[in-house]
Amino acid sequence: VQLQASGGGLVQAGGSLRLSCAASGRTFGNYAMGWFRQAPGKEREFVAGISGSVSRTYYADSVKGRFIISRDNAKNTVYLQMNSLKPEDTAIYYCAARSVALVTTMGSNYDYWGQGTLVTVSS
Predict the structure, then answer these.
(1) Alpha-carbon 10 to chain mean position
(2) Cα–Cα nearest to 82, from 19, 3, 13, 9
(3) Which residues are bridge partners to 17 per DSSP?
(4) Cα–Cα distance measured from residue 50 to residue 59, given in angstroms and rounded to the nearest whole number
(5) 41 burial via Cβ count (<10 Å: 0-12, 13-18, 19+)
(6) Burial class for 65, CB neighbours closer than 10 Å (0-12, 13-18, 19+)
(7) Which residues fall within 8 angstroms of residue 23, CB to CB, at 6 or more apart?
(8) Are 30 and 53 in contact (CB under 8 A)?
(9) Contact call for residues 112 and 2 (beta carbons, < 8 A)
(10) Phi and psi of 35, rounded to 5°?
(11) In tens digits, what is the pLDDT along the chain, a chain of 123 residues?
(12) DSSP alpha helices (H): ranges in the chain?
């Protein structure tokens, strides 16, 4: 499975961005997908996840109510809609895939990773 993330950029606080992650592979719909981020000098953290099959969603407390994760299995793509962005959301955002349906917040449990896309939120 190969993952290609896109959609990052520079946005003012309060603005919105939508990240996309295109995946290869015929069994994409069965994979759990996650978005993680890593800010300068900080550890990578879980942002949001969506399960395979039933597409149940999970969010970190810091983004709950502002970010929405979704998937389009026909397009082999997962999205992260980010609203009400804050300067502390500035980070490189990575998409990741697990070859099972269940979401986990631990990055080490993901089998495949995209290259990352930079999101910068100015104050």
Answers:
(1) 17
(2) 19
(3) 82
(4) 9
(5) exposed
(6) exposed
(7) 1, 2, 3, 4, 31, 33, 76, 77, 78, 97, 112
(8) yes
(9) yes
(10) -115, 135
(11) 899 999 999 999 999 999 999 998 777 889 999 999 999 999 999 999 999 989 999 999 999 999 999 999 999 999 999 999 999 999 999 999 999 999 999 999 999 999 999 999 999
(12) none
Q: Which residue has the tokens 């099959």?
A: 53
DSSP three-state, residue 38: strand
| Diameter over CA atoms, the chain | 42
* Neighbour count for residue 102 (Cβ, 10 Å): 12
Q: Return the SS3 of 53.
A: coil
C-alpha to C-alpha distance for 105 and 27, rounded to whole angstroms: 21
